[in-house]
């Protein structure tokens, strides 16, 4: 068995969580989905470059929907990159209103863009269809670092923030600021080094440039497994099995924000189409093809729709807004 | 095979140089103003801020542009012999390079107009139509006698490339009116 | 030798008729896609990943590796023949390669590129196999301060080698820098020179800049001159390298392999730095009478960078396989592909799934050899492209740059960028500004700024970090010795330069 089991366990845990979360919203959509929608091809937009996370999600979902025969009309995937998806978000709001033949991939970056004012639009301006997966954040340190636990790292930051550079992508700085804030530190003084992703962060951690970094769990998995990196905390309510890391909940920090990933459609998308896609993505989330895809890619399945999704997005947006306010000292 | 430049080419070359210098300086000035418009980051990182490099670049362009204008006004143009005397190999080689004839203004304007038109109709008309029109017109402008060959080439290349990209490579090119 | 044994076992496993067929298909498809402007290795792999769903892991990986190598080489074909680089690394090849083609030496240029790619690619794989453990240490010894010192050296080295008017070369560098600045600030995430455009906040795509500065001005010029027939000097192209060409290429192959491989080891710099550095080194070490030919079709300037380019791929595999750290967008995608097939790169890769790993490594060797076998005979055919009548050729080049640009964002925006930068490039070229320094600065300067500022953030604003860290201090000392001192000496000897 060469496949590491961690990702599988992660998805299993999240599936249980998702099942608990979406109990109330399961009925209702079925009648609408029985109609003759979709009549023609539906474009699946990846608002990023080929090979990026959104692109790979869009292509995998389109392929699995076809393979499982959940959707039988063609699903051409198109790339519309631009400013972390905000270019296409604007296009969706301004040009595609009321259409039923286009959906797009999105993620927590949408909340961040809105918080930072990179776009005048938010998830409230489009039709949010469903969330399909989520990835927890993790705080890591090199194996020989002086920080034995999250608290000692946070204390070092409180004592002399300048001397403790923290490696994080722009989007991932918010969750960390929230933790520092809960630890009664001053988030405006954190010395963030901006990296583009896990690869750059891993290089910096191993080279000793930074002693602390935060990113999605999958970004650090290989080096966590080999012991080159040590986990200080996973930002989650429940521990992740197979990964010997304390959760923020255990450590007493109420910061459990996660990077969700899902789909949205144009504003005023016809109800029939919305119901169809909610249903299709829900079916997909439990299908064998998707389970295999998710496991291969270390994606954690976490299906949400309707009210659950709305309240989840509201909470995430609130946390991100709060994180941004902390960083900017506003 | 290059000959020493005549008085008129020297004068026109200097004019071009001055013009180029002025354009560079103007670009530098615009960018300098834009560099001051770069917003302060919400959180100040230690070290260099986001404005330093843009300031260096725009001031650099401004100064270089002014210098270009000045040197074009003062410097006298030289022939191969003078460059040889100076033992400046680069200058000699440059002067001896294959003759690059000057581009006629009319030809340039036609090509540029066609390029801009091509960009404007690329999406509305779709790839096949716009590209056939662009290739056919521009090749026939260059070589009007072989217009049949030109238009066959234009249609064939556009069609073949469209099929290659959309059918084989799954790159979606605009379908436009034919879509 | 454990590694040797394993490699041979891997070779045995990879050399099955089916796998050989996949390598062949991969290399062929890769070359074709790489030839199309704007479609580099990343797009090629991303587009073809769905095709490999449902294939056996070994075959799928072999196919994609073949595509990678093929696309890398395909990019250099158009660079040489029509000065249309499909990606940044082959922009360097265009410098001398296109000049060679203009002088009737397209054949030798293509051939030396193919041979160099093979040598660089194969030796790098051997380096990957036998030296990985040592090299991993090296790759992780470099922090932001060291990267900054290295990039400063590379930038100074290449910019001291410019010919012609220093002032004009400097303007060109500044133009390149300006293009590189546009976009969101990499450390503080504020928009710089985006003039309120959301699209510009992504920055200008470097492949788009290369196409706009190299291909567009040249095409505009030839079309505006209304050239109807193939000029005399282009109609007879030598198809093969002479003994002299091979002799001149030999040392650049060796240096290119070393430079490319070492640069490839450093995540984030990858093949780009390697090929630029190799070009600079070749020009620097050339004998005075050969150095004059740089910029006018020096075969060393094709052989070195092309070798370095492919050796860099092997180098980038070291941190990717051993640490799961991708050094570039392309290796990030390969990493994803590996994971898709259930292969988790990282320190435990070789113990966890040895068979598959060794088969892949073996297939890289095979892919390189296949590329050579496939492309050497094709050189004759590729060269025929230059016999296409100029109006058709250059109009076609423009159409292809439009496709390449469009395929980046699928919107009017990148067509606009292509036109605007293309016109700037044309104006610069016609008024005697060299364009190479602009490309160079547009590639290297953003990397230098990023690492310089990162190093300063990490040291909390303390500039002494560059001289107190031993590796960084050593690099800086070397830079001073190799670049600054000769420059000062030269200035003293020849006070009147401009």
From TrEMBL, chain A:
Sorted keywords for this record are:
Signal
Listed PROSITE patterns: PROKAR_LIPOPROTEIN
The protein's matches in Pfam families, at most eight in alphabetical order, are given as: TctC (PF03401)
Which residues does UniProt call coiled coil?
none
> Which Gene3D superfamilies does the record match to this protein?
Bordetella uptake gene, domain 1, Periplasmic binding protein-like II
- Quote the CDD domains the UniProt record gives: PBP2_Bug_TTT (cd07012)
User: Is Signal one of the keywords?
Assistant: yes
Provide the leader sequence positions: 1-18
Write out the transmembrane intervals: none
Q: Does the keyword Signal apply?
A: yes
Give the family per the record: Belongs to the UPF0065 (bug) family.
Q: Which PANTHER family match?
A: TRICARBOXYLATE-BINDING PROTEIN, UPF0065 PROTEIN YFLP
Q: List the protein's name.
A: C4-dicarboxylate ABC transporter substrate-binding protein
TrEMBL record, chain B:
Q: Which domain of life is it from?
A: Bacteria
Q: Where is the DUF1468 domain?
A: 20-174
Give TM regions.
19-39, 51-70, 108-131, 151-178
Write the record's keywords in alphabetical order, separated by commas. Membrane, Transmembrane, Transmembrane helix
InterPro entries from the UniProt entry: DUF1468
Pfam families xref list? TctB
| Record-given protein name | DUF1468 domain-containing protein
Tell me the lineage of the source organism: Bacteria, Bacillati, Actinomycetota, Actinomycetes, Micrococcales
From TrEMBL, chain C:
Q: Does the keyword Isomerase apply?
A: no
- Alphabetically list the UniProt keywords: Membrane, Transmembrane, Transmembrane helix
Q: Where are the transmembrane segments?
A: 20-49, 61-82, 109-132, 138-157, 320-343, 355-374, 394-421, 471-490
The DUF112 domain sits at 20-440
User: This protein's superkingdom?
Assistant: Bacteria
InterPro entries the UniProt entry points to: DUF112_TM
Query: By what name is this protein known?
Result: Tripartite tricarboxylate transporter TctA
Organism of origin: Ornithinimicrobium tianjinense
